[in-house]
Specification:
The complex is a heterodimer. Helix content of chain A is 0%, strand content 54%. By secondary structure, chain A is mostly beta strands. In chain A, strands 2, 4, 5, 6, 9, 10 and 11 form a seven-stranded mixed β-sheet that branches. Chain A has a four-stranded antiparallel β-sheet with strand order 1-3-8-7, with no helix packed on it. Chain A is globular. Chain B contains no helices and ten strands. In chain B, strands 2-10-9-4-5-6 form a six-stranded mixed β-sheet, with no helix packed on it. A four-stranded antiparallel β-sheet of chain B has the order 1-3-8-7, with no helix packed on it. The chains are: A mainly beta, B mainly beta. Chains A and B meet through strand 5 and strand 10 of A and strand 4 and strand 5 of B.
């Protein structure tokens, strides 16, 4: 069974740091592109960023509100995706989901979509 | 960056109704458009990718159409388990913006 399990959420003060992890199982994690999506309380979904597989250069991309403060990384030996969050702001309060980025299509550019999601972990930034 | 809008923001419907949700992109995204369903307290769930391709396991009462800037998600014969919030997402370029969501509740 394909499964993603996030951990590491909690309460942190503004300006603080937190590291989220996402444990993957049931699929070839080393070949997978992965993404983080967040959802503030009572709000919609917000794409946070993405990391490609090592084969594809392990490139990362971020949404503007988190660029320069958040870092996505992966440990293929442990099938784990990470999100290092620094200089946290109250507006970063949200449920954070990790997701497997799947691709469809016979030629580039492929159709990318978020196929499998974890249950999420809650981050609260408050003094 | 591409901006996504959805209409309506919410709607009330009855079991058996045909429901249509619209998603619009701020520029052409060809058919690089996904639809997700989210129930309260749960993670989102993929319904449709590439504007009209039904994800495996998703009931055939869900369908998607559109290309360019205008897209629709249609639920033909609303079921009790379909009351949820629906989001579109463009996968044409980075950042992969989501629409603001459309909440479907019971009339």
């Amino acid at each position: 069974e394909v499964q993603l399990v996030e951990s590491g959420g909690g309460l942190v003060k503004p300006g603080g740091s937190l590291r989220l992890s996402c444990a993957a199982s049931g699929f070839s994690f080393r070949n997978a592109w992965m993404s983080w999506v967040r959802q503030a309380p009572g709000k919609g979904l917000e794409w946070v960023g993405r990391i490609k597989s090592k084969t594809d250069g392990e490139t990362t991309d971020y949404a503007a509100p988190v660029k320069g403060r958040f870092t996505i990384s992966r440990d293929d030996s442990k099938n784990t995706l990470n999100l290092q969050m620094n200089s946290l702001k109250t507006e970063d309060t949200a449920v954070y989901y990790c997701s497997w980025v799947a691709a469809a299509g016979s030629r580039r550019p492929y159709y990318y979509y978020l196929d499998v999601w974890g249950k999420g972990t809650t981050v609260t930034v408050s003094s | 960056d591409i901006q996504m809008t959805q209409s309506p923001s919410s709607l009330s419907a009855s079991v058996g109704d045909r429901v249509t949700i619209t998603c619009r992109a701020s520029q052409s995204i060809s058919n690089y458009l996904n639809w997700y369903q989210q129930k309260p307290g749960k993670a989102p769930h993929l319904l449709i990718y590439a504007a009209s391709s039904l994800q495996s396991g998703v009931p055939s009462r869900f369908s998607g159409s559109g290309s360019g800037t205008d897209f629709t998600l249609t639920i033909s014969g609303l079921q009790p388990e379909d009351f949820a919030t629906y989001y579109c997402q463009q996968s044409y370029s980075l950042p992969r913006a989501f629409g603001p969501g459309t909440k479907v509740d019971i009339e």
